[in-house]
Amino acid sequence: MSLPLVVGITGATGVIYGVEMLRVLRDLGEKPHLILSESAIRNVHIETDFTIDSIKEMAEVVYNNKDVGAAVASGSFLTRGMIIAPCTVKTLSAVANSFTYNLMIRAADVTLKERRKLVMMVRETPLHEGHLDLMAKCARLGATILPPMPAFYHKPATIMDIVHQSIGKALDQFEIKHNLFRRWATEHAEKAPIDLAAQ
Fold first, then answer.
1. Secondary structure of residue 62 in the 3-state scheme
2. Which residues, other chains included, contact 191 with Cβ-Cβ below 8 Å and sequence gap of 6+?
3. Per-residue model confidence as pLDDT tens digits over 182-195
């Protein structure tokens, strides 16, 4: 049995990234562990038609964000790593500064200190220098900064196609096999040759 992947959902816009991440993992036979922030719960009601209970049902284990003594707060509890999707700048800042005031941040901090993979799908734009400094600091600590930036080479037809491409990029970091989007291949380049003379 594979180790669990921890999914953290914070209050940034785009909670669908975390919700759909849970659904995809469940459908792939994974058993994700979930941490929902208080602001994420609020945004679920604002941005989606999901109920909190229906989201929790997609996870194998659900933790209270206030419970800093939960299993994922300890490095001795083995996990595959953690994805924070979406990730607020507040969460980014707390992780960058090891300010472990709740379980979300503590679990992320544990992930880093145990040299496990931490993927942070930071959702904010535009970015000022402080945001960029925080991202750079987290990257130096070992996190992967993976903002949900849409790609279009796979010709997305729906919003969910765009969501799936970003989710798939995050799952790639953990070598979890999926078919969420069409990958770049040689035929893409052949269909769009570069005219160097026109440069």
1. strand
2. none
3. 998 755 555 655 55
